[in-house]
């Protein structure tokens, strides 16, 4: 058993007869009244996100997990195929379990959290940043350089990201997978 002081991003807990992964949390200690922890939880079975507030010291049932490195192979409808990099066993996961499926390139190595009780995969953690090539974007218009002006761009995985005006087709860009946002251009 854990308490609210053990809550951290990525922790898997049993809550409301389901397993949830903590996406965000905030410890709040108001000037008046008891402290509490405000959390955003994502169901690992359905993918639904729920906001919940735990009072300080509340007991929570955590799920023991192991992490394994898997290589992303290919998508097939709403099912994604992965291969364990150690023993080459393949698994399939539903799209709802993935944090940012539109930013995964074939061959990408990700971390899969596996429940130690039943050996079922719970969720997939992407690397913090991925480098993808821009396949389509409109050219930037000269003179249209207001502060932080952006334009939509499509990357090689099909995801659409807002990028600065100086980014062109063929450029490689670094993308923050947590926010699905442009970080920087990669020079070769």
UniProtKB/TrEMBL annotation:
Coiled coil feature spans: none
The organism's place on the tree of life at top rank: Bacteria
GO molecular function, one term: translation elongation factor activity
PROSITE patterns (UniProt xref): EFP
Pathway: Protein biosynthesis; polypeptide chain elongation
Elongation factor P C-terminal domain location: 130-185
Name of the protein this chain belongs to: Elongation factor P
Free-text function comment from the UniProt entry: Involved in peptide bond synthesis. Stimulates efficient translation and peptide-bond synthesis on native or reconstituted 70S ribosomes in vitro. Probably functions indirectly by altering the affinity of the ribosome for aminoacyl-tRNA, thus increasing their reactivity as acceptors for peptidyl transferase.
HAMAP family: EF_P
Signal peptide start and end residues: none
Single Gene Ontology BP annotation: peptide biosynthetic process
Family as reported in the entry's similarity comment: Belongs to the elongation factor P family.
Organism annotation: Tenacibaculum caenipelagi
Compartments it resides in: Cytoplasm
Entry annotated with the keyword Cytoplasm: yes
Keyword Nucleotidyltransferase annotated: no
Domain Translation elongation factor P/YeiP central: 67-122
GO cellular component: cytosol
UniProt keyword annotations, A-Z: Cytoplasm, Elongation factor, Protein biosynthesis
């Amino acid at each position: 058993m854990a308490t609210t002081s053990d809550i951290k991003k990525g922790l898997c807990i049993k809550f409301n007869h389901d397993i949830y992964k903590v996406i965000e949390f905030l410890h709040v200690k108001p000037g008046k009244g008891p402290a509490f922890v405000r959390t955003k939880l994502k169901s690992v079975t359905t993918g639904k996100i729920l906001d919940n507030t735990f009072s300080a010291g509340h007991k929570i049932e955590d799920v023991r997990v192991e992490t394994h490195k898997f290589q992303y192979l290919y998508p097939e409808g709403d099912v994604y195929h992965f291969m364990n990099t150690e023993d080459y066993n393949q698994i399939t996961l539903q799209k709802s379990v993935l944090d940012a499926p539109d930013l995964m390139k074939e061959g990408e190595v990700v971390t899969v959290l596996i429940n130690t009780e039943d050996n079922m995969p719970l969720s997939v953690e992407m690397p913090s940043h991925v480098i993808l090539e821009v396949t389509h974007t409109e050219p930037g218009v000269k003179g249209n350089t207001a502060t932080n002006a952006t334009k939509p761009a499509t990357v090689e995985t099909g995801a659409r990201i807002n990028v600065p005006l100086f980014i062109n087709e063929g450029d490689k860009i670094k993308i923050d997978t947590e926010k699905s946002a442009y970080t920087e251009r990669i020079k070769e």
